[in-house]
Amino acid sequence: QTAVKADITAYKGVWVFMEVIEDKGVCKIRPVGYELLTKGRELANTLGEELCAVVIGSDMQSGFAEISSYGADKIYSVNAPGYKDYNTDAYASAMINLINKYKPSIVLYPSTFIGRDLSPRVAAEIHVGLTADCTGLSVNADRNLVQTRPAFGGNIMADILTPNHRPQMATVRPNVMKKEILKPGFSAAVIEESIAINPKAARVKILNKHIDDVHGMEKLDEAEVIISGGRGVKDSNGFTMLKDLANELGGAVGASRAAVDMGFVPKEKQVGQSGVTVRPKLYVACGISGAVQHIVGMDGSDTIIAVNKDPRAPIFNVCKFGIVGDASQILPKVIEEVKKS
Ligand code: FAD
Prior knowledge:
The protein has about 350 residues and is an alpha/beta fold. Helices cover about 25% and strands about 25% of the residues. This is Electron transfer flavoprotein alpha subunit.
């Protein structure tokens, strides 16, 4: 489709699409939204524009105080029972409606399953570009959004501009931007928007929901404890041990690319430059050498523990605690001790 050149001066405001997730029956804002608000605040300050959060989903009032504290000036709330579960057509239509009405200059989405599904549909419908999986965002001297992302399999970092169109839209990977409470106690203005769902336009009906408790990237990128394995874990039996330890500590299993390539675990478990970026409280790296492409995906972790039989492995340069030894002998002892405590 040919993009329509917009009157870009009419577009103002930095928007963040706040994804709502259900956790044990309770709806809450997905934490990546707060990371995007913190970055959005910086962009809005540079541009001298407002920072607005968009919340689609029923009964999310309880999350508004937190959204305000992360720096939003305004909250656009689309709140009706039909929006309770994510529905591509309904959510895309709500976003398009809001964008056409209020004309923001920038719209940011999380690079999650929902963000990756929603944003391209919105972009195609309103004929603007979309930069997926950004790891950096800034504003240049011409007031355009510089969208930085890995390209060519992660071999270069590309700066992408969409200067002639508005809004400029990007998805951003979870855990690459820091979140920071910027306005404690602040109450953002809430604008309730009633956007009716056209039942004919919403082609998908949710009949039943099964929430997978353990697997997948979604769990990994929010886990507070990650037990990760590399080629040194040797096989999928070794990963069963990592899973046992992760279960004991209420965490998730991660992996290096070598472990994924060898078929020990699915690709969604890959941590690193071409996988998921994580920032847990505890990251345990077993049989992982510490290649730079792995390190960039986990060095924001609070505490890193490495288990490796090679004392010269580069992972020991980034860990807080290191154990030199064979993971297949050390892990059973650790699991036994954790079970006792
Ligand atoms: P190895 O480098 O083979 O290391 C295995 C380690 O296990 C060694 O240090 C060894 O001493 C130790 N070991 C062996 N046996 C034992 C034992 N019994 N007990 C304890 N320790 C043992 N990699 C990623 O992880 N994530 C990415 O997203 C990623 N993206 C990439 C993107 C590009 C463009 C490129 C070029 C590469 C990328 N890589 C990525 C690959 C990366 O360069 C490394 O090849 C990979 O991380 C190595 O994985 P590994 O540490 O498991 O394996």
